[in-house]
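hey so i finally got around to running the thing on that chain from the lab meeting. sorry it took forever, my laptop kept dying and i had to restart like 3 times. anyway pasting the input first so we r on the same page abt which one it is
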Amino acid sequence: MTLQEKQEAFIQHLKQYHHAAVAFSGGVDSAFLLKAAQEALENRIVAVTVNSRVFPKREADEAAAFCRQYGIRQILVPVDELSIEGFAQNPANRCYLCKRELFGRILHIAKQEGMDAVLEGSNLDDEKDYRPGRLAIAELGIKSPLSESGMTKAQIRLLSRQMGLATWDKQSFACLASRFVYGETITEEKLTMVDKAEQKLYELGFQQFRVRIHGSLARVEVMPEDFKKLAGPGIREQVAESLRQYGFTYVTMDLNGYRTGSMNEAVLHANNEP
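ok and heres what got predicted. didnt touch it at all, straight out
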């Protein structure tokens, strides 16, 4: 099956839903899903975006701009993740606790709006990582059409580019809570530290990065091809000084570079031990 045929099959797959609410963060996957849902269902969709403490304001602004650009109605759902029982203690199933609460609220809104399905943007590649939130999605009956259709991240980016979506080359993003090592308490102060640190890297022109927090230590992940830039004169001093101003005592560079789910590596390793 060619990529174009796969896209056509995906649009047909979406047409099984009469009305649909799309959980929309503004990222690559959910933007492609939302635009494809609009093509399949026309005005019988609504974008539902969580207004959250664990997502930077720039992400919320970009999500709103996307909906305005394509004339898609958007509903904002305010959520305080730190008030979710168990979330701040950051257990290994933190994502389950969060997704259960967030998608429960989205499902409630969808029912109020007369929608017969809630769609979310997990893709086929997400199944390779430790993602306990998938259990919550399954328990609530949320649909994952990208994963169900076998869409990979690379295919979604390529199709997004062909559709003219500005999100096609947007950096991959996950909630700021994923920057914390499991067991480390998540606080508003630490979330702000991470948010400011990543905003600094963004302003310096880095495209794909993470700032992982380990107590007062910041572990900076950038793409291997950006190692030289990060360690270069001027940039290295700026990053180190700025992050110290934000509250970090130590600033380090991860020699393995950027990769998704690096905080899950210890969990995956433990699960694979005999």
